[in-house]
Amino acid sequence: MSFLGFGGAPQPTSAQKIAAAETELEMVTDMFNRLSNSCTKKCIPTDYKEGELNKGESVCLDRCVSKFFEVNIKVA
Amino acid sequence: SLSASEQREFQNIVERRQMKDFMTMYSNLVQRCFDDCINDFTSKAVSTKEETCVNRCVDKFLKTSERLGQRFAEQNQAMMQ
C-alpha cells in the first residue's frame, strides 16, 4: 500500500502467478516424496510376508506423516 | 487468485507433473521390489518365491502410497487452517 499516490508495487503478471503456483506445487510434491521415502523405510519391513498393510504398519504410517509435518513446522 | 484461463493453464502443468511423478513412482517401485526380493542368482529365471515376494511388494507399496497420500492431504488441509 502506498500513501504517496504512486499506486504501490506493480501487479504480478499471469506468467508470474502461474510460475509461483508451480513452484508451490513443486515444493509440496517434493515434501510428499521425501515423506513417502522416509515413512516407507521406517514403517514397512522388507520381507513382504503379505501384500496387505497390517494394523501396526498402518498406524506407523499415520504417525509418521503426523510427525513429519510437526518437524517441518518446527524447523521452519 | 488465478483467473479461469490461468487456472486452465495451471491445470495443464499439474497434469504434466502428475504424469512425470507417476513414472518416477513406477521406477522407484520396480527398483525397490527388485532390490528387496531378487537375491537368488543360481538361476536366470525368477523363482516362485521371488515372484510371490514381488507381488506382495507391489501390493504393499501401492497401499502404502495410498495411505500416505490420504494422511498427507489431511495434514496439509489442517495446516492451511
Task: Please count the helical segments of chain B.
Answer: 2
Q: Mean pLDDT of chain A, as a whole number?
A: 90
Please provide the count of β strands of chain B.
Answer: 0
Give the overall pLDDT of chain B as a whole number.
94
| Number of alpha- plus pi-helical segments of chain A | 2
Helix-and-strand structural type of chain A: mainly alpha
- How would you sum up the global shape of chain B? elongated
Largest sheet features of chain A? none
Runs of chain A in which pLDDT lies below 50 for 5 or more consecutive residues are none
Name the features.
heterodimer; A: 76 residues; mainly alpha; elongated; B: 81 residues; 2 helices
Please give a structural write-up.
The complex is a heterodimer of chains A (76) and B (81). By secondary structure, chain A is mainly α. Chain A is built from 2 helices and no strands. The mean pLDDT of chain A is 90. In chain A, 14% of the residues are buried. Helix content of chain A is 67%, strand content 0%. Chain B has 81 residues and is an all-alpha fold. Chain B is built from 2 helices and no strands. In chain B, helix 1 runs antiparallel to helix 2. Chain B is elongated. Chain B starts with a helix and ends with a helix. The mean pLDDT of chain B is 94. Chains A and B meet through helix 1 and helix 2 of A and helix 1 and helix 2 of B.
SSE diagram, text form:
The complex is a heterodimer of chains A (76) and B (81).
Chain A: H1 14-43, H2 55-75
Chain B: H1 4-37, H2 48-80
Please outline what is shown here.
The complex is a heterodimer of chains A (76) and B (81). In chain A, 67% of the residues lie in helices and 0% in strands.
